[in-house]
Every structure is written in C-alpha cells, then in structure tokens.
Amino acid sequence: VGIYALGSRFANILTFIAIIPFQKVWGAYSFQIAAKGNLEKTLAKVGTYFLLLLSITGLAIITFSPTVIRIISAEKYWNSNKVIFPLVHANVGYGMFLIFVFGIYYLNKTKIISIITLLGSAVNVGLNLLVIPKFGMMGAAVASYFSYSLILFATYTVSQKYYFIPYELNRLLKLYLLFLVLSFLAVLIKVQNLWLDIAFRGLVFLIFGLNLYLFKFIQKKSIHQLRYYQYKLS
C-alpha cells in the first residue's frame, strides 16, 4: 500500500498542476464563451490544447518520476513507478471528461452525469475485486484507468447527442497516441546508469516536442483565436 501510495502521489501531480486549476475556471468561462457566441469552434480548440497540456505534463511525470524516485527514496519503493503510467493516463481521462461533459451541463442534464459516474464506479469496484488478488497494486491502477476511460467514452457519446461539438478528433487521437507510445517506451526501457537514464528520458521528451513541431500540431492561428476570446471576456 505504501509503494502504491508513493506512485499515486506522483501521478496526482498532473491533477494539482493542470486539472484542478482548469476545473476552477472552466465552468464559468465556458458559459461566458457560450454567451458571446461561436461556442462550438472555441470549445473544440480548447479541448485540443487542453489535451496538449495534459500530455506534456503527463509525459514529464511518467518519464522523469522513475529517476526522481530512485534519487529520493529507498530501493524498496522504486517499484512505485510502475503504477504511475496507468494512473497518469487515468487522470488524463478525467481531465478530458471536464471538456466533454460541457454539453450535458449546458442543457442541464446533470442526472445523466450521476448515472455515468455510478456506472464507472461500479466497474472500478468490480475490476478491483477481480484483479487486485492476482495483480496487486498494478491491478488497482489498471482498474482506475479502465473505469475513467469508460466514463470518458460514455460522457462524450451522450454529450454529443445532446449538444454536438466539432471536436478535432483526428488531432486528439494523434496527440494521445503519440503521448501513449512515448510514455510506454519511457516505462518499458530501463537504463541502470543514472546519468544515462536521465539522458534517455530527456531524449524521450525531446522526441515528443519534435513530433509536435514536425506535424505542425501547434497552430498560431488557433492560439491567436484563444487569446482573442480571452481578451474579449476579460
């Protein structure tokens, strides 16, 4: 439990750095955007760039936390880095849930959120009962990932039926797959030498940034649009 708790604390850095600040301001801000018009396109852009923020922060946590854990903790706690990968991805799912749930909130269909959340909680409890006896803390972490993924998918599907938002699904999928592959490689490949390990993890992060540049993921036009709406609402 102590080993899992350490890994969970590192994974929750994503929540404290990116998700909680976004959650505090996004609710009121999104309704202000709705009042000003052009909600659909703006929300789609916000979703894409919020996933970018989650991916950058999440990749940094997954990539560098094993090295940090080796430095700051006793060797018996080093295995805590194993649960960071699925827990960070679970937190990314929760972060995107805050984006996709807008349509349900906007039309005041909040009962649906309760149903979806209860369903996800039931799946989480059921998976924990099945996998923890056999896989231990990894089972608990993977169960969290699948339950958050289910909540995210159900929320997106229902919300789109009530209030369609033209999310940039192609860009979202490419970004998440890039994040998934690189973060998996950061977990899979282990370098015993500490300095070589740091260099390798820095390379993983550099490859992520290089791919964003090569595929022109960050578009100046979109950034200017987001800044324009921020200025209009300030």
3D structure, described in words:
The chain is mainly α. 84% of the residues lie in helices and 0% in strands. It has 10 helices and no strands. The relative contact order is 0.15.
Layout of strands and helices, then pairs:
Layout: H1 2-11, H2 13-36, H3 39-72, H4 84-100, H5 102-106, H6 110-135, H7 137-162, H8 169-188, H9 194-214, H10 220-233
Helix pairs in contact: 1-4, 2-3, 2-4, 3-4, 3-8, 3-9, 4-7, 6-7, 8-9
- Kindly state the percentage of residues in helix: over 70%
What is the total tally of β strands? 0
Quaternary status: single chain
Largest pleated sheet: none
Radius of gyration: 19 Å
What would you call the structural class? mainly alpha
What string, H for helix and E for strand, traces the elements in order?
Answer: HHHHHHHHHH
Provide key terms for this protein.
234 residues; 84% helix
Short précis:
It is built from ten helices and no strands.
